[in-house]
Amino acid sequence: MTKRMRNVAISGIGQTRHRGHREDVNMVELVAEAVEEVLADSKMDLKDIDCIVHGNMELFEGIHQPDMWHVLGDGAYGKAGFRITTGGTTGATIACSADHLVASGMYDSVLAIGWEKQEEGMTTTGITNMADPLWEREVQTGAITGTHGVMMMNKFGEPANQAAAELRVLMANNARKNYKAHLRIEITRQDVLESRVLAWPLRLLHMCPESNGACAVLFVSEELAKKLPQKPVWMHDHVTVHRQETFDLVNMGDLDTHGEAARTLYARNGIVDPIKQIGVFEMYDPQSWWALDWIGKFLMLENGEQIEMVLNGDFAIDGKFPLNPSGGVVSSNPIGATAIIRVAEAALQIRGNAGDHQVPKDVKLALSSGFGGTFWTVFHLLGAEKPDK
């Protein structure tokens, strides 16, 4: 791992129940729900929080600098604060920033908050207007693209089609065990394969929803973690890879920011066989075709090995390598919170108190990822044991 000035622990987790409609609360009240839960989980008082890191995709709700308003719900009034937006990776970048702020010694406690209330605006309009319609046209599709599906179908044939559908069924099965998930639906492989085509071979049931929700994670110094009641989950490392400067030149079907992030993180942390060495992976999976391809990149698999693993049930909660026991992004997608939910859920698995979607083994190391914006990948490694600084 990279050298740290001091160790950082996750000592509190809070998230809302993610839903398609939350007319009962405004944005401030939605954020407050997650903040109240993280404070209860950590047994911390708001006055003891040094800094707030806050983020969402502001163009989706159309509210400029919502962090200014949200001081009423997140307790940031009079405190140091940062606001972050990096697309779908916003939540993961918030986690990186909170980790750095504590590791540097600047603060002892940092509350990282990601949220989105997508019913307040038009997400598709936001995505299609954020890029140049000529030079950056590919970005405007968001996740509604069949490129990876076509690529995998051409290379691996019908087994890839079946695996993408089966992967979505697996995520639905997991989500039904997670009472905070948005889509807790019962579906079959045939349901997926017969759902409406969006961009062939991508179908409606392959896709993530638009969700409303918030997630808050408390990052603290080692000294403070010792005083708090929850089992600390230690930040071991994180890697960010993006194509911000050249994203108009990227071939979506051959994107390897995931592979580059994985190779870097594994090399720094002595991971040579992630399937054997990692206990669980909360992966950012905005659609099942992307997920099927990305599993191979993150786990360093060759020749489509992940297709057979999906069909064999290896990624189930009780399988060889549990993937997204929470139900993943295809089950809950409050975009500004989505990637920090991956961090929170990975931490819950290490703590051993994820509830009905807890994996049936002792998790020592966990991975989480985020993806979005200008082909931006964030990859986290969390552990039960304190890392060497």
From TrEMBL:
Under InterPro entries, the record lists: Thiolase, Thiolase-like, Thiolase_C_2
Any transmembrane segments, and where?
none
Q: Which Gene3D superfamilies has this protein been placed in?
A: 3.40.47.10
Coiled-coil spans are none
CDD domains reported in the protein's UniProt record: SCP-x_thiolase
Q: Where is the Thiolase C-terminal domain?
A: 259-377
What molecular functions are annotated in GO for this chain? acyltransferase activity, transferring groups other than amino-acyl groups
Q: What is this protein called?
A: Thiolase family protein
Q: Which organism is it from?
A: Candidatus Zymogenus saltonus
